[in-house]
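can u do me a favor
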């Protein structure tokens, strides 16, 4: 799994492509009467905003990590494992990446609530306007997505807080007085 994470971390285009294809597959399961080409095209167009945001965020994180994708992937791997970097330059890069991510997650609870409300509205509207197959399918996707979002988001947030604490606790090692 580690190799898959590293490969996907290095190749942003692959993450985007897989996301569009999986989203298209889910829509095709829920609405089988639609053509594959129209669904995948619709998913790609609908994902453009997310792709732009993801690209901008990735560029900032890459810059903070030292300028290369390999540096960012290495820091991300250490963050997942909970390994605190020992090299002073790498520690500063990790601090910068962690602070950027923590700053982006400062409104995560409100965002999770808004997403839950949006999905609930989507489920209700689907139940009112589509058939039972689509309503049950959207409800299942919504439930799975929201559970994953909360569990994985909280896990990532704990990792970031733990790493920031470890980096500030050992800050005296970087700046001897």
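np, heres the sequence
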């Amino acid at each position: 799994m580690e190799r898959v994470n590293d490969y996907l971390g290095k190749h942003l285009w692959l993450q985007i492509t897989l996301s569009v294809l999986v989203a298209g597959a889910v829509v095709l399961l829920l609405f089988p009467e639609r053509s594959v080409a129209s669904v995948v095209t619709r998913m790609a167009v609908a994902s453009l905003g997310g792709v732009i945001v993801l690209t901008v965020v990735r560029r900032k994180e890459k810059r903070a990590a030292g300028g290369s994708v390999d540096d960012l992937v290495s820091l991300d791997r250490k963050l997942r494992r909970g390994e605190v970097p020992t090299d002073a330059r790498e520690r500063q890069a990790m601090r910068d990446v962690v602070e950027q991510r923590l700053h982006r997650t400062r409104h995560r609870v409100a965002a999770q609530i808004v997403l839950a409300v949006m999905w609930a509205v989507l489920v209700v509207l689907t139940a009112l306007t589509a058939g039972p197959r689509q309503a049950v399918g959207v409800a299942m996707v919504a439930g799975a997505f929201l559970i994953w979002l909360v569990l994985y988001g909280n896990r990532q947030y704990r990792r970031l807080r733990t790493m920031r604490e470890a980096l500030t606790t050992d800050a005296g090692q970087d700046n001897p007085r």
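The two ends are 42 Å apart (CA to CA). hope that helps!!
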